[in-house]
Structure formats: structure tokens, C-alpha cells
Design brief:
It is a single chain. Helix content is 43%, strand content 21%. A hairpin with a 5-residue loop joins β2 (208-215) and β3. It has 16 helices and ten strands. The longest helix is centred in the first third of the chain and has 30 residues, at 54-83. It is globular. It has helices at residues 8-33, 54-83, 99-111, 117-124, 127-136, 146-155, 159-174, 266-280, 297-305, 320-329, 408-415, 420-431, 444-465, 468-477, 479-490, 497-505; strands at residues 187-199, 208-215, 221-237, 243-250, 286-290, 309-313, 337-342, 345-359, 365-381, 388-399. The model has no long low-confidence stretch (mean pLDDT 91). Among the domains are: 8-35 and 309-399, no CATH class; 54-162 and 442-505, no CATH class. It has 513 residues and is α+β, with helices and mostly antiparallel strands. α7 (159-174) runs parallel beside α13.
């Protein structure tokens, strides 16, 4: 029996904690009775290590590295062949390392999640780490200094690094690696922008500028210029939570409307990014997942021009004429409703098809829109009162396709709702080891090159973590724990060289979970 605390406040907290546990138990029972599912927890194991001997630990480390090597070796031939085609402007008589070796070193820096160029120099060139790297990647006869890679990225056409990434994605799509994750037989691609860097000093003419407030010593407020780098990203966002990096479009001050003193913006960048994506995948069936910023006529027209389906977030203060017609028609459309359970939520879908939307000069242009609204409720335990409270949320989207009872769940719950996958990808790249916001170089070209290498490293880790064997380890250790386990293994004398060479000599095919 638990001993009561002598401190009154502590007793209250213990009683509240016990009440929350009992309320959570009642809530699970109530959900089960209603046919609802309790969402699984995403926490990793809190137990002690399951490896109770050194031999078991050695075997686990060996198997983890071998599984990673299988994934890397299935991707590297295509990647290295493409990187070799990038022209090298250096004098061939004066360099020691080939450009492909330098860029492979850059990719591995992000695969092993090194925080900076200095950390990569310090840790990856340690004798044991270097020996294991050469064992896994025979192309690396020796590792250069990171400054050498920085100078190379400052001079080459770094856009071709991103082309190498796209060629890798094209190979995966041709190999039907993502077929089981499609939505309405289309590839869900999410678009979103993110700030990469912010400084008080202008480091290049491409940086964007904004005015921010600050306080003087006497308490008065003023404004000063601030400079930042912003990137529009496109990623495959699947319903199982896997987010695969695709294209990046850097916003640049020089791309803006100089005559009218307007900077580059996300809308302009989207047109450039969409054009490039269409060039890489001219016939790929795409479902574009967009946030409320893109709920406008030109974006919808562009998607239709490229034969892309779309699901666009429709905010309450956007397209007032469309909302007026939606609220008017739903009163007479009795059959456009669907009630269903999804996870622990009770959902009510209602939709209106064929809404005329006019835009442009004198409203000359028009589109037929289809709007769907999802109203959902669920129950949670209130952390303050330990009571069971009901929560509510509401979501609305513009759909490119007619909505009905058969497709509304797939398009909304499995497609549009997983636009958050790209935002989760930003969170991972910024705070979980990929150093998205770190400025690896103040040279604009080199900074973009490091960004593309980071996306390649992230792609390789995403694919590895979603294979059948490594997904089980990732669920037990966590994604960051898996990479840390890999990095620690490569830092010590754990590996059996013959086992690694056998993996290198055997052809392997990537198989996702």
C-alpha cells in the first residue's frame, strides 16, 4: 500500500494522478463498448536493455548495420552514377578526392546526423569510424576535410544534386515501392514552406528581408531589418506516416518583382516548384495536398492544367462566396452526409458538389469546386479535473473530384489529413538530428548544396527505417535511438568484416514494410 505524503499539496497531486488513471480506464472501456479504438502510444520502451550478454549485443549491432548496408547498397548505384555526371570545375592535377567521394561523404554526414562540419571532421575521421565506413562503403578510400566539400559545393551546379535525388525517387516509383500507400491510385504530395535561416546581417543578395520590432534602452520601440532564407518543400506524405523528401524551391530576393519592389513569395515559388515537379513526373498521377494559403483560383487552375487532383484546406475566412453557397445548398441536400467512426473519433462528413467559383479580372474565370466539411468529436481525460470531457474539431477542404459516400473517407482521412506529414518532416529535420536550420555555409550555392545532401541523407534513413527488420528496431528504440545505435556501432570494434563483405557481394532489393 502506498504511503501517504505528509505534504498536503503532494497528497492532492497523488489523488489527482490516481483519479486520472481510473478515468482513463473508464474511457477505454467506454470506447470499446462504442466500437472506437484507443490510439496507440508512440513512446519507446522504458525497460532495461533486452541484450543481456556482450555476444547478443554484438549480434544485434551486426544485424542492424547489415540491414542498413542492404538499403544503402540498393540505392547507391543509381545515386553515384548520377553524381558522377556533375561536371567538376577543379583542376584534375590538384585534387585528391573525386567529387562523388566528397558528396557521398556529405550524404553520410547527414545519415549519421552530425551536427556541423566540425563535428563531422572530428568524429567521422576517427580511425575506428573511418575503418568501418571503408568497410561499408569501399568507395571511401579516405575522408577529406569538410572545407574541401564546402569549396566544391561553392563551384558546382548543386541543382544536379537534387536531380540525383529525383532520379532515385523515379527508380523507386518505377519499382512500385509505394504502390500500397496510394490514395485513389494517386501519389499524395504535400507542399509547404519553412524558414531555414534568420540573421541580422545580410549575407547574400538572395536573402529575403523583413522589418521586426525591437526595444530601445529607454523603453521605446523601433524597427530594424532582419534577413532570412525560406524554402518551399514538396514531399510524399503517406497515410502510414512515412514522409519521403522530394523537391525544394528556395525563395530568392532576386526572383521577386523588382520593378514594384516586391520580394519573392510562396505563391511564386509554388509555380516554379510545380513546373519542375511536372517536368520530372509528366505522367505521374498526383494528389496535391495544400494548406489554406493555396485556396485560390490560380493554384486550382494550375493543378487542373497539370492534371493533378488536389485537396486544399478551406479556412473559414477564405472564399466567402463559396462558403455562402455551401451553407445555402447543404440545407436541401439531404443525402450528402456520412457518419462514421475513425480511431477514437466520431465523424460527421457533409459535402456540396459543383459550386461555381469565379475569379480574375471582372470574374471572367471560373471553376467548379467541391467542398467537404468534417466535424468530429472525441473524449479525453481532463488533466486538471480528472473528468472525461468531450472535444470538438472541424476541418474543411476543396476537392478536385466529386465527393460521395464511397470516397470521402479516403480523400479526407487518408489523404488530406496526412498533409501534416510534411510538417512532421520539418520537425524531424529541424530538431531530430538533420540540422535543417544550421548554416553549413554562408555561400549561397554551397548552402543549397548542403540542403540537398541533407535531403538525400534523410531519404536514405526514411527508407531504411521503414523496412521490415529495421521498423521493428525503430519501434523499440525510436528513430533517433536507431541512428544513435548505428553511429555508436560504427564508432567501435563491433563489426564482423566478413559478414559486411558478404552483404556487399550479394544483390539486395529494397522491401518496405
Amino acid at each position: 500500500m502506498r504511503k501517504l505524503s505528509a505534504r498536503p499539496r503532494r497528497r492532492e497531486l497523488n489523488e489527482l494522478k490516481q483519479a486520472r488513471r481510473e478515468a482513463a480506464k473508464r474511457l477505454r472501456q467506454r470506447r470499446a463498448a462504442q466500437g472506437l479504438k484507443t490510439p496507440p502510444t508512440a513512446t519507446i520502451s522504458n525497460g532495461k536493455s533486452e541484450l543481456n550478454t556482450v555476444d547478443k549485443e554484438r549480434q544485434a549491432r551486426q544485424e542492424t548495420v547489415e540491414e542498413h548496408v542492404k538499403v544503402y547498397r540498393s540505392l547507391l548505384p543509381t545515386l553515384l552514377n548520377r553524381l558522377e555526371k556533375i561536371p567538376d570545375p577543379r583542376n584534375p592535377k590538384k585534387f585528391k578526392h573525386k567529387a562523388t567521394v566528397l558528396m557521398l561523404y556529405g550524404i553520410l554526414m547527414f545519415v549519421f546526423q552530425m551536427a556541423s562540419r566540425r563535428e563531422a571532421n572530428r568524429r567521422m575521421t576517427m580511425p575506428m569510424f573511418l575503418e568501418n565506413l571503408r568497410l561499408m562503403f569501399p568507395e571511401l578510400e579516405s575522408l577529406p576535410h569538410q572545407d574541401t566539400l564546402n569549396r566544391l559545393l561553392s563551384e558546382i551546379d548543386v541543382d544536379q544534386i537534387e536531380e540525383s535525388l529525383m532520379q532515385l525517387i523515379q527508380q523507386l516509383i518505377r519499382g512500385k515501392k509505394f504502390v500500397r500507400y496510394l490514395i485513389s491510385n494517386r501519389y499524395p504530395i504535400a507542399f509547404d514552406g519553412s524558414q531555414k535561416l534568420v540573421r541580422d546581417i545580410l549575407w547574400g543578395e538572395q536573402w529575403l528581408e523583413r522589418q521586426v520590432q525591437y526595444k530601445e534602452e529607454d523603453g521605446t520601440t523601433g524597427t530594424r531589418p532582419q534577413y532570412y532564407v525560406y524554402v518551399l518543400e514538396a514531399s510524399l506524405a503517406f497515410a502510414n506516416g512515412m514522409t519521403v523528401p522530394l523537391l525544394s524551391e528556395f525563395l530568392s530576393y532576386t526572383q521577386g518583382d523588382q520593378q514594384n519592389s516586391k520580394q519573392d513569395c510562396e505563391q511564386r515559388a509554388f509555380k516554379r516548384l510545380a513546373e519542375r515537379l511536372k517536368g520530372y513526373f509528366p505522367r505521374l498521377p498526383i494528389l496535391a495536398l495544400l494548406d489554406g494559403l493555396y485556396a485560390n483560383g490560380p493554384v486550382i487552375e494550375l493543378c487542373r492544367q497539370y492534371h493533378w487532383q488536389h485537396m486544399i484546406v478551406l479556412q473559414d475566412d477564405s472564399l466567402p462566396t463559396v462558403w455562402e453557397e455551401v451553407h445555402g445548398l447543404i440545407k436541401i441536400l439531404r443525402g450528402n452526409h456520412l457518419y462514421r467512426n475513425w480511431g477514437n473519433r466520431k465523424q460527421h462528413f457533409w459535402w456540396v458538389n459543383d459550386i461555381e467559383y469565379r475569379y480574375g479580372d471582372n470574374a471572367r474565370k471560373r471553376h467548379r469546386l467541391h467542398v467537404v466539411v468534417c466535424e468530429e468529436t472525441w473524449e479525453e481525460v481532463d488533466p486538471d479535473s480528472a473528468g472525461i470531457v468531450e472535444k470538438h474539431s472541424r476541418h474543411a477542404w476543396i476537392s478536385s473530384e466529386l465527393l460521395n459516400r464511397d470516397n470521402v473517407h479516403e480523400r479526407c482521412n487518408l489523404g488530406a489529413r496526412h498533409r501534416w506529414g510534411i510538417e512532421s518532416g520539418f520537425l524531424v529535420e529541424k530538431h531530430h538530428g538533420y540540422q535543417y536550420e544550421h548554416c553549413f555555409s554562408y555561400n549561397w550555392n554551397a548552402m543549397r548544396g548542403y540542403h540537398f545532401l541533407m535531403r538525400l541523407g534523410h531519404l536514405m534513413n526514411v527508407l531504411a527505417q521503414n523496412t521490415a527488420r529495421l521498423a521493428k528496431i525503430a519501434r523499440r528504440r525510436g528513430l533517433r535511438g536507431l541512428i544513435q545505435f548505428l553511429r555508436e556501432t560504427c564508432s567501435g570494434p563491433w563489426l564482423n568484416a566478413e559478414g559486411i563483405r558478404l552483404v556487399l557481394d550479394t544483390p539486395w532489393q529494397l522491401r518496405l514494410e
